[in-house]
């Protein structure tokens, strides 16, 4: 828990202001009080497809985290890494069963929802439907609606929802949910059928680690 | 490491023979020597959409693992859970950096590839292209090709490939890769451009935990 030498830890996060996967990590870094530098990558200018960026992150996706020269990719792996190297304050429960439940909720977002509605996929679906270069909003809405339907049911079936998705402590599931909620709003997804999610999004919107890392606060934000 | 009381541990895995996410968990259970019962769910008969199954797994996806009455979902969460409750033999490296690298590789498959080409998504893309009820093979091939392109580069960029995806020890990344390779074959994806992956798939095909849990060996397999 010592904060004494934290300024010596060197973290660089490659991020895009509107990338919800980047936001998860920005929020986790803030929550854990880990000093870091943010390097913006502009996906509208295809900077994530530059040879330089691809040499770090071969998927051409955001975020990428560089820690003391070690290049790490994929936000679920980054969340686990941050939890391991700085366990407190925790973003996962202390018991294996609780961790499995939280990871299960998070995976509804970071496996089944977000990757299916990322920009590359939406453009591909648009192209397959004869609209080259257009992101397919109808498909995106369906993906997010389907993911939120599962998340909402998992909250009630699991009976684990409290102030947060799992009890009364913030976890990685909440960070994934909130960032996905931002995408839901962008794509105009109707959240009427998701009362538990709506309540969580309202609560989470007040969290400092989320507010202070909001896309609109980012150096590369376009207003 | 004691095996003495293992027969008392009660695991039930809801699985479908051709589900690559189920296969990951079947292989992990086998690798770790965890006795378990398999309950088949026939997704061609939409059994995963029954109220009974949805009450366990609200996503309507496979697999679901029940451990001593505790219902757990999402294969990445299950892999972590099995690693925590039975750390040996290990499916993750001992150091945080190594674990992050392995999870990063695995997530290229379990986030960016497999969920984007699951049956539900392929049917949705088919329907959006005017072919209701048809799985979109063209989209599936693109998704797997894109995912394998990233995985292949990550293996060489990371420089971590050995006998397996990360050094000379089998990890969760290999289990995810191999099961995805099975899907690649089913969808007719050309693997010519992926020499490292092809070599890994050849090696992995000889692993007992993979061979003995192959879809064709399953009780619900249709030959």
TrEMBL record, chains A, B:
Lineage, highest ranks first: Eukaryota, Fungi, Fungi incertae sedis, Chytridiomycota, Chytridiomycota incertae sedis
Protein name as catalogued: Maleylacetoacetate isomerase
PANTHER family, per database record: MALEYLACETOACETATE ISOMERASE
Residue span(s) of domain GST N-terminal: 9-90
Chain segments annotated as transmembrane: none
Annotated ranges, domain GST C-terminal: 95-223
GO cellular component: mitochondrion
Pfam families: GST_C_3, GST_N
Molecular-function annotations in GO: glutathione transferase activity; maleylacetoacetate isomerase activity
């Amino acid at each position: 828990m010592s904060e004494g030498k934290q300024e010596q830890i060197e973290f660089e996060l490659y991020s895009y202001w509107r990338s919800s996967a980047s936001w998860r990590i920005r929020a986790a870094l803030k929550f854990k009080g880990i000093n870091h530098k943010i390097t913006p990558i502009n996906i509208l200018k295809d900077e994530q497809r530059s040879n330089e960026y691809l040499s770090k992150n071969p998927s051409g996706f955001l975020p990428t985290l560089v820690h003391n020269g070690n290049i790490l990719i994929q936000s679920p792996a980054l969340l686990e890494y941050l939890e391991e190297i700085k366990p407190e304050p925790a973003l996962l429960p202390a018991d294996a069963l609780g961790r499995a439940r939280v990871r299960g909720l998070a995976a509804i977002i970071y496996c089944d929802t977000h990757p299916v509605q990322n920009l590359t996929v939406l453009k591909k679906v648009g192209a397959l439907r004869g609209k080259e270069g257009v992101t397919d909003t109808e498909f995106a809405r369906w993906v997010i609606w389907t993911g939120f339907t599962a998340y909402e049911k998992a909250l009630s079936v699991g009976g684990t929802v409290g102030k947060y998705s799992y009890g009364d402590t913030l976890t990685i599931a909440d960070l994934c949910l909130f960032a996905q909620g931002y995408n839901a709003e962008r794509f105009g997804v109707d959240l009427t059928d998701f009362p538990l999610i709506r309540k969580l999004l309202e609560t989470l919107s007040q969290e400092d680690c989320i507010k202070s890392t909001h896309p609109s606060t980012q150096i590369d934000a376009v207003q």
